[in-house]
Amino acid sequence: MRKLLFALPALFLLASCGGSSNNTTTTTEQTAAEQKGENFMIDTLTTSVDWKGAHKGGLAPRWGKIKVTSGTISVEKDSVNGGEFLVDMKSLQVDPASVTEEGKKATDLEGHLKSPDFFDVEKAPTAKFVITKVAPYTAADGASLIADPNYLISGNLTLKDKTLNVTFPAKVQVTATSVTASAKFVIDRSAWGINYKTEGSPENWMISKDVEIGLTLNAKK
Q: Pfam families per the record (predicted)?
């Protein structure tokens, strides 16, 4: 296996987590990185996106998965330099183990998250992440939610009809035949206009604005 190297995406998504420390940076949309060298195809069967959310103060946490449907990662001289992938928002799932209150169902929450209150999947069935920059990670970059990160990944994250750039630590390995990456970061869903029960909304801030996103990504030549 070659040395640990350049990084990758890590993306996305869902409703509301509380209290996770992170050093995710969010800015305006940036220019996509040029994809050079060889293309590695994302293995959608072994790539997973996890989400975790909660009510204010971390109460009643919910979690689940959504599917990555396609994507590519470009590698030149053992280094990732670009890439992108698509996420099927209609595939959003809530883990039944996270819904323990009497009378509540995971399927009901799934329906609500897919509604216009949150991700409006009928109008916006696809989310997208496009790498804009890959840089080495150092201790000066701050805390990480994963162990032993080696790169900072920046990318344009599109949710619904809005695109913003996010930067977060990731751990990436590149071999002659594969690229693997893992990341965990937190986004403020209200930055993408997903304001249901956030502070300042008509229904107040019962649900945290923070959403913890976890990515396990595998790509093959």
A: YceI
Alpha helices in 97-187 (DSSP H): 106-113
Contacts of 180 (CB under 8 A, 6+ apart): 172, 173, 217, 218, 219
Structure tokens at 192: 């993408």
> Could you tell me the residue ranges of all domains in the chain?
25-220
Query: ∠ at Cα 26 (190, 73), nearest 5°?
Result: 115
Residue among 211, 193, 197, 180 nearest 48 (CA): 180
Nearest CA to 32 out of 84, 100, 74 is that of 84
What whole-number distance in Å separates Cα of residue 111 and Cα of residue 162? 22
Mean of pLDDT values over 182-211: 83
Q: How confident is the model at residue 204 (pLDDT cuts 50, 70, 90)?
A: low
Max Cα-Cα span within the chain: 55
